[in-house]
Design a protein that fits this description.
This protein is mainly β and 358 residues long. It folds into 2 domains: 234 residues, Lipocalin, CATH 2.40.128; 88 residues, no CATH class. 15% of the residues lie in helices and 51% in strands. It contains 5 helices and 18 strands. The protein has a 10-stranded antiparallel β-barrel. Helix 4 packs across helix 5.
Length: 358
């Protein structure tokens, strides 16, 4: 129960990992080329979310101050138009059934001895073919199955010297948009957040969840992030008309052996407090340079005449966001602070926070 609650805390999308068709089992049907395109929207959305919600004002420009905030931040990355479908070129290794479907387009296939057919199947299932691939990404329609376009060619079996001429054809995989993510408009997340300041106008921010097992087969979930903001007005001889800060934030999220997501951002933000210390409205804005990656690791299982052969697949997805503009508003009422902002980038993002503030 504790692990399920932690899962829901971080991924408010209902990823029912342990049911009959988990994401890892889905990826086992996909080669690296297909899987990287299939997962691409999630890699960018995770990066956009992880880099969101880190600030809602600049730190006070105090040499030594006591400023604590404990709360939760919610983020929701919007999927851009077209992210639900992909079309790409890559390599694919076909299973025994798929290879049989391809080879049987030659009318002479059925007249070949069984031993020769088996040799053909072994050769085809052991070859990475250059193909076209098209279909749903992880957020696409559940019935938009991924199609592998096999180019027509003559295949010569090495042992017997026999040849088979096959036509152009589509091989349909049992993979469409994934469960509750199918046709989703955005990816929401939640994270606990703690901030402490200030020393020479510098405040530190922490995000952390202890390691917890999500599923016995999937493994443990871990999340940690931290950041620093510095207001140079703490040491400038002439005070600035508004608060400004430079900031740096980084974090890592791991889901078993399947995913490791990392994100980093740095840049400037500015705010202007209207009101008193415990009762105010603070508009804020920022410009951040950012990057994110998602390392993916799984076993691509190919059914061959000699049995299933797993291949270890490892690749890295680069997040599409490279910068963002943040526009937001923060409201403080006694010991409660709430804020909301909109972030403009390749993947636009909403974030909001509720904090107990001292």
């Amino acid at each position: 129960m504790r692990s399920r609650l932690l899962l829901l805390l971080m991924f408010t999308v209902s990823w029912t990992w342990a049911q009959e068709a988990t994401l890892e089992q889905t990826l086992q049907n996909l080669s690296e080329s297909a899987a990287s395109s299939y997962l691409s929207p999630i890699g960018s959305a995770f990066g956009a979310n992880l880099n969101a919600g880190w600030f809602h004002r600049a730190p006070d420009p105090q040499v030594f101050g006591f400023d604590i905030e404990i709360g939760v931040v919610a983020m929701a990355a919007q999927f851009p138009t077209g992210a639900e479908h992909f079309k790409t070129n890559g390599t694919f290794r076909f299973s025994t059934d798929q290879a049989t479907e391809i080879l049987s387009t030659d009318p002479n296939w059925n007249s070949l001895p069984t031993s020769v057919q088996n040799d053909f199947l072994k050769q085809v299932t052991g070859t990475d073919f250059a193909v076209e691939m098209e279909g749903a990404t992880i957020i696409g329609a559940a019935d938009d199955y991924i199609t592998i376009r096999f180019p027509g060619q003559t295949i010569t079996e090495d042992k017997s010297g026999q040849s088979v001429t096959v036509d152009d054809q589509d091989v349909v995989l049992p993979v469409g948009g994934f469960k509750d993510l199918a046709q989703a408009d955005m990816l929401p997340m939640l994270a606990p957040q703690f901030s402490l300041g200030t020393v020479m106008g510098t405040a530190a921010t922490l995000r952390y969840l202890p390691a917890a097992e999500i599923d016995p087969q999937l493994g443990a979930f871990q999340y940690f992030g931290f950041g620093l903001q510095h207001n140079p007005d703490a040491w400038l001889p002439v005070p600035l008309p508004f608060d400004v800060a430079v900031g740096f934030f980084t974090q890592t999220m791991t889901i078993g052996d399947l995913f490791t997501a990392k994100a980093t951002s740095f840049g400037l933000n500015a705010s202007y407090k209207l009101g008193f210390e415990a009762l105010n409205i603070t508009p804020y804005a920022g410009y951040m340079i950012e990057s994110s990656t998602m390392d993916v690791s799984y076993k691509y299982v190919v059914d061959t005449p000699v049995g299933p052969i797993p291949q270890k697949i490892n690749f890295t997805l680069e997040g599409e966001n490279t910068s963002r503009i943040t526009l937001g508003l923060s409201i403080r009422f006694l010991v409660v602070n709430i804020n909301a902002d909109y972030n403009i980038g390749a993947y636009n993002n909403f974030s909001a926070g509720v904090y107990f503030a001292l």
